[in-house]
Amino acid sequence: MKPIGGYFSLELPMKEELHKNAIRLNTGRNCLEYILRARQYRKVYIPYYTCEVILEPFKKLGIQYEFYHVDVHLEIKDSPLLKEDEALLYVNYYGLKQRYVEKLAEKVGKCLIVDNTQAFYAKPIPGIDTFYTCRKFFGVPDGAYLYTDKFLDENFAIDQSFERMASLTKRIDIGAEAGYEDFQRLSKSLVGQPIRQMSTLTQRLMQSIDYKKVAEQRRANYLQLQAVLDKSNILCLPLESDAVPMVYPYMVPVSGLREKLIENKIFVARYWPNVLEWTTKEDMEFLLACQVQPLPIDQRYNEEDMNAICSLI
Ligand SMILES: Cc1ncc(COP(=O)(O)O)c(C=O)c1O
């Protein structure tokens, strides 16, 4: 019998998830683990330019991986020739590489794995294993979506997220700096987690989002930064009409820009610190990790905020 009455839970609007037909899991890296286990790949080619947590499932399952380089368009420099039981993982960088993902899907076929962690709105391509993570686009602690047609015959436990809410609630209540340690703790707590189904709380939060509005705001903010900054940006990544970007990637050979932005409370991440260890100064990825400032363009911000970023730069 369903409980009726008594105290309330957190009040949230009830809409529809964007990826309502996907498999719901706890993290992006665990979507990758799911794919690796279901497909039983022996080896996967992965980019140097990615987040190190992607290695977790490889290490856990003892599956081989080999790095590949990308060029200034963030496209694969030398495409590996895939043998049987081998796959190619590509990151849809900043949510701006969907046309290239479509080309890759045609060329590589089923052995392509698309990491849409930075491209929450990119449509999955039928027959291509594709995963998304929630916390890079929305104020949720965890959660991921997976599209595949190869299923594991296992009943995964349902995750619980209520103890991972501190950074999200503190940022509202007492400010960005106050919740930063909790955010770091949250990131650490996602390391080494087994595959679980997305928590009911995260799913409920994902059901409360106005996806259309978020998309419009992100695109408007992106276009505003693009209009001002594109001429000095080394990267030239056009915004396709269906793209909803994660950030505006601004690449300039100016040292100290990141520090200056952060000093002025424009918090930019580094994609990704591990790349500086995996590559050398001669590699494109090293430059990307040094010189790309992923400027925030997300749904929390408006025209005035974008103006503030532009004038500071
Ligand atoms: C490119 C990329 N792929 C995969 C992941 C893993 O996502 P999750 O943290 O949900 O496991 C991340 C970030 O953590 C990422 O930046």
Model description:
By secondary structure, the protein is an alpha/beta fold. The protein has 2 domains: 184 residues, Aspartate Aminotransferase, domain 2 (3-Layer(aba) Sandwich); 102 residues, Aspartate Aminotransferase, domain 1. Helices cover 34% and strands 13% of the residues. It is built from 11 helices and 9 strands. Strands 1-7-6-5-4-2-3 form a 7-stranded mixed sheet, sandwiched between helices. A two-stranded antiparallel sheet has the order 8-9. α3 links the parallel β4 and β5. α1 packs across α2, α4 runs antiparallel to α5 and α7 runs parallel beside α11. The longest helix has 19 residues. The chain starts with 22 loop residues before the first strand and ends with a helix. Pyridoxal-5'-phosphate (PLP) binds next to α1. The site of pyridoxal-5'-phosphate has 14 residues, from α1.
Largest sheet entry: 7 strands, mixed
Q: Give the strand line-up of the largest sheet.
A: 1-7-6-5-4-2-3
Structural class: alpha/beta
Order of helices and strands: EHEHEEHEEEHHHHEHHHEH
Q: CATH topology of the largest domain, what is it called?
A: Aspartate Aminotransferase, domain 2
Question: Which regions have little confidence, pLDDT < 50, spanning 5+ residues?
Answer: none
Number of domains: 2
Distance between the termini: 58 Å
How much is the radius of gyration in Å?
A: 20 Å
Measured as a percent range, the helix fraction is 25-40%
Distinct helical segment count = 11
Number of beta strands: 9
Distinct ligands, ions and cofactors found in the model: pyridoxal-5'-phosphate
CATH class of the largest domain: Alpha Beta
The proportion of strand residues reads 5-15%
